[in-house]
Design a protein that fits this description.
Blueprint (H helix, E strand, L loop, with lengths): L10 H12 L11 H8 L2 H12 L14 H19 L13 H32 L1 H25 L1 H17 L5 H33 L4
Length: 219
């Protein structure tokens, strides 16, 4: 059984730790800094796009009074709550036997797709809100868009491990349990922990954009 819950601010690390525990592997080496890893992930096209954004002249902003963040806050909370509830609901189909992983795999992949489909537009809406706030925040939104595209392949690689690690975890439970089927509840709890950690990981960029909107309130 896994232990721990996703915590704000270190959700990505929490997901990585949970996946390592599922694989019964030692934690990844933390000696490489994020900046070093990011340098390896950025291709030449990403570097050019990032340089272009950083060197672009600030756009002229609308001088009118901009709205507060209540709408963005509500939008974020609505998306987060809906995705968390869909994870907690569990598989929507019964298993043919205690050792049938199929419903769990389909639940996992469906929840991953739902997270992608809901969070990507939310992130764009938060970028749009930043862009309306000031030229400096518009530049920040553009940087976030570039980084989103650059890091996406690495994120897909990590998140693609989730169903595989869950299946291996499920199969180890099944082999060790014999005729006792009580382990299925323990596995379900572990799967919920992992998917909630993935949700927290995927929402981190949106949290950062929303925090920026809160900090730079219009006057």
């Amino acid at each position: 059984m896994l232990h721990g819950t996703p915590r704000a601010g270190i959700a990505g690390s929490e997901l990585t730790r949970l996946l390592a525990r599922l694989a019964e592997a030692p934690p990844a080496d933390a000696g490489t800094s994020f900046a070093e890893r990011l340098g390896r992930w950025l291709g030449w096209a990403d570097a050019i796009a990032l340089s272009t954004v950083l060197n672009a002249a600030p756009a002229v902003s609308d001088s009118g009074r901009m709205p507060g963040t209540d709408g963005e806050e509500a939008d974020y909370q609505r998306v987060r709550a809906a995705l968390a509830a869909s994870i907690a609901a569990g598989p929507g189909e019964p298993a043919s036997s205690p050792t049938d992983f199929g419903p769990h795999r389909r639940h996992c992949t469906a929840r991953q797709q739902a997270m992608h489909d809901a969070i990507a537009p939310l992130r764009q809406r938060l970028r749009d809100a930043l862009s309306r706030r000031s030229p400096a925040l518009a530049r920040l939104a553009a940087i976030d868009a570039v980084m989103d595209r650059a890091i996406a392949p690495q994120e897909r690689s990590l998140l693609g491990l989730v169903p595989l690690r869950l299946q291996a975890h499920f199969e180890r439970f099944a082999r060790a349990a014999g005729d006792d089927t009580g382990w299925t509840d323990t596995f379900r709890h572990d799967m919920d922990l992992v998917l909630q950690a993935e949700l927290a990981h995927r929402l981190l960029p949106c949290q950062g954009l929303l925090d920026t909107l809160r900090t730079h309130r219009p006057t």
